[in-house]
Amino acid sequence: MARRPIALVTAAVLFLEAPGIVAINAVMARFVKAQSMSLDGLDPEVMYTGTWALGIGSGALLLLCGLVPLIAAIRDRRPGRPGRALLIGCAVVHGVLGAVAVGLLGWAAFAFLMVVVGLIVLTLVAYGESRPEPETEPNREGPGSEPEAAPAVA
Question: What is the pLDDT along the chain (154 residues), one digit of tens a residue?
Fold first, then answer.
């Protein structure tokens, strides 16, 4: 199976998605600041700062999630338990965002998020549990070896 290219594509998509998420939150923060509206009495400046913090935090987590398949592809080994847990969490978040995005943004956003979910899951499956090879006895009668002599009967 081509697990290295799958992991590299997954890492690339997550690395490209990270600045996109930060940019979306930057746009939302500008709207909050420009409108100068409060939500249930919250200070608009706090909402502006919180939107930026959410964007930067989400971008950093996406970069961290992209690092896991990149390291797996470089080493050609499956990620450790924390890395797998991080990728599973990333896939779940993308699935939930896809369900919300289909209603708010349309089918194109849903399709993109489902492609990302598919890449993450495919990376996890491609680097699934490694099964040890069954041990076989070495062939003693290979080329260049002498067959054992039968015991002499007296």
Answer: 688 999 999 999 999 999 999 999 999 999 988 887 777 778 888 889 999 999 999 999 999 999 999 999 999 999 999 999 999 999 999 999 999 999 988 999 999 999 999 999 999 999 887 655 566 665 555 565 565 666 666 6
d(CA 130, CA 104): 41
The Cα–Cα gap between 79 and 82 comes to 8
* pTM (2 d.p.): 0.76
Contact 56, 19 (CB under 8 A): no
Look up residue 68 and give its amino acid. V
Query: Helix 3-35 crosses helix 44-75 at what angle (to 10 degrees)?
Result: 170
C-alpha 59 chain-centroid distance: 14
Using CA atoms, how far apart are residues 149 and 7, in angstroms rounded to an integer?
Answer: 54
Q: Which two tokens stand for residue 140?
A: 């003693």
Which residue is associated with the tokens 């509206």?
Answer: 37
